[in-house]
Amino acid sequence: MVQSSVLGFPRMGANRELKKATEAYWADKISQEDLLKEGKRLRLEHWNIQKDAGIDIIPSNDFAYYDHVLDHIQLFGVVPERYTKNNLSPIDQYFAMGRGLQKPEQGVDVPSLEMVKWFDSNYHYVKPTLQDNQVFKLAENPKPVQDFKEAKEAGITTRPVLLGPVSFLALGKADRGQTIEPISALEKLLPLYEDLLKQLKAAGAETVQIDEPVLVFDLQDKVKNAFKPAYEKLGSLGDAAPKLVVATYFGDIVHNIDVLKNLENLYAIHVDLVRNPEQISEVIGALGPQQVLSAGVVDGRNIWKTNFKKAIELVETAVQKLGKDRVIVSSSSSLLHTPHSLDSEKKLDAEVVNWFSFAVQKATEIAIIAKAVNEGPAAVREQLEANAQSMQARASSKQTNDQAVKERQQQVTSEMHNRKSPFPTRLAEQGKTLKLPLFPTTTIGSFPQTKDIRIQRNKFTKGEITAEEYEKFIEKEIQDVVKIQEELDLDVLVHGEPERNDMVQYFGERLKGYSFTQNGWVQSYGSRCVRPPIVVGDISRPAAMTVKESKYAASITKKPMKGMLTGPITCLRWSFPRDDVHQSVQAQQLALALRDEVVDLESAGVYVIQVDEPALREGLPLRSGKERTDYLKWAVDSFRLATSGVQDGTQIHSHFCYSEFQDFFYAIAALDADVLSIENSKSDAKLLKVFEDEAYPRHIGPGVYDIHSPRVPSEQEIKDRIKEMLQYLKPEQLWIDPDCGLKTRQWKETKAALTNMVNAAKFYRSQY
Ligand code: GLN
Ligand code: ZN
């Protein structure tokens, strides 16, 4: 029979209980015992949800208090000495690696290990950090075994999830000052996996899911060649170990399929058939005569209801070739990247809510698909009909299809992507209107979001103050911020963004085509969750979104005022996108809406406009080649479409929260933004060399100080930093600004830091 399985379940709980418990533990408000109890309760609850949904193969060890990769770091003893020397309890050591620990009274002060994005998702994992003479040691009473036993005691036989040895190492790095190539440690690591697998088998595990997601990358030969020997070894354990299901997700594995061929001892291969359904035939072709295909047909990365008809067809294709016993129906990836349950959404539009499916609902979908294939459609007729109706309703809904938006998209021309004149002409025009000094100073947009701002916004949301009262309050905030910037003698001012809660949600709430959940939280890192807005239909802008505040701000100062917008790619990447039209289409719709806003700002007398695109890089497809070039093309096009409607004298800025552009510099250059402000204070100034090498003519403001810390940089420090930048950038090209927005800072340090920044700029101005 076809079995149903889930690769992993969200950890936070229906009401983010895990977040609350861990944060309470960190704040010393609950004991370690309470935290562990809450973890246990959540695991059990999640197993039972999946069991009740009818899932045959339920995962364990997918739960983590902070991050599953960090679990493996501790599991294999890849713990740098700085975390072991203070005799912390295991869980405190674990959190210290995840988030750093500062307890001066106990003499503990360690930063966290590096955390980076998990593939192309918004989840972040902790990087395994290895020493040159790395010694691995399997933890006593390993967590995967504990969790398996815990479930078993509750009457549920689970399939433990492990991150595979090749991915674990390939996703790691050498520690500071070390030179080890992590993959070279594979042979030393493998015996620990063997030991662990044996322990799992002894505890009663029949199968284990072993994730090797790096198989979707373009792999270095060393990594690619590591697979075969590693899995020959693990496979040779035979009955002493559980059967192995190698899982991949977020891409296709056709280009790496040869490493999985002829590994007869692997029980099953899991592939993501939501992202890449077309890989099914090649993957089936590569399976040995006994091997099982785990077909990931329910999207683990998005919130849309599964199209049963399509999913069932795909599974049937596999069944025809392999037979029912050799097919498993599954989520495409772990469901970690979807919100917990739709049940708690009470305010969603009744039409739209019927199109969504969160983790709890997705588990049920998987079970239904398996049943349909096993017993025939009649067994689940009602569900299939309801699903078909919902698909039909969504496809034909007015919310999904806005004819006016489609028509406008058809009228987009290539000229609409180009500014009227090349940069030198624009610069001359801008010089006339803006009259900026050399080394102009500015900030990235937001100023401290004080407690008062949050209180007033809350009152307004709850209806405790009127729209006029709130507006008055915002105006007063803008006045204060403008006055402070004038006193600081900054050159290009901003209104401070006091009216914005979040840089994507604020725009989503003002655009047609977006929907918002009340409780659709998704883990981003550690205890941190985000609640992405959902693009439900064609996007358009019913009315101006930011003009009122920016126009007001511009009216109360003689200095140039910079309008502040979030770019199309960032709006898209930090939302759940539609799955029924290509993302390039959605980006173009967003771009058109923003284009109108940009033009409206200009008409309102705002002649500097910044369009933030921090998410541009994270949207880069995982593999190089056509997919990546295509993405960069439409991403750049959407920025240009959004920003090219203005006159030459209007200055377009863009902002990025990093300065590693080497891999796609041509795209950054192609944005044709007059001024780029980028993070640089925490990175090497050498990264600016690309601008020099590529003879980049436009203006750049590399951040001169870190805004993530309350620390005030001295004037001298900033001067030194500028001096370094001048090795790569021409004086007439250089803007002086902080790394990013100041919303998380306090006023005190903000004023002090900006005073030093302006003085440093003035010093250089006097030198040239
Ligand atoms: N304009 C935004 C701000 O200053 C930019 C934030 C960001 O880059 N993440 O807050
Ligand atoms: Zn930033």
From TrEMBL:
Which cofactors does it use? Zn(2+)
- The UniProt record lists the Cobalamin-independent methionine synthase MetE C-terminal/archaeal domain at 439-762
Q: How many cofactor units bind, and how? A: Binds 2 Zn(2+) ions per subunit.
Active site residues per record: 708 (proton donor)
Ranges where the Cobalamin-independent methionine synthase MetE N-terminal domain occurs: 4-321
Q: Which residues cross the membrane?
A: none
Region Disordered, annotated ranges? 387-423
What's one GO BP annotation on this UniProt entry?
A: L-methionine biosynthetic process
Top-level division of the source organism's lineage: Eukaryota
| Residues binding L-homocysteine | 444-446, 612
- Residues annotated for L-methionine binding in this entry: 444-446, 497, 612
GO MF annotation list: 5-methyltetrahydropteroyltriglutamate-homocysteine S-methyltransferase activity; zinc ion binding
The UniProt annotation places 5-methyltetrahydropteroyltri-L-glutamate binding at 19, 122, 528-529, 574
Record keywords: Amino-acid biosynthesis, Metal-binding, Methionine biosynthesis, Methyltransferase, Transferase, Zinc
Pfam families linked to this entry: Meth_synt_1, Meth_synt_2
Q: What does this protein's UniProt record list under function?
A: Catalyzes the transfer of a methyl group from 5-methyltetrahydrofolate to homocysteine resulting in methionine formation.
Record-given protein name: 5-methyltetrahydropteroyltriglutamate--homocysteine S-methyltransferase
Q: State the species of origin.
A: Lithohypha guttulata
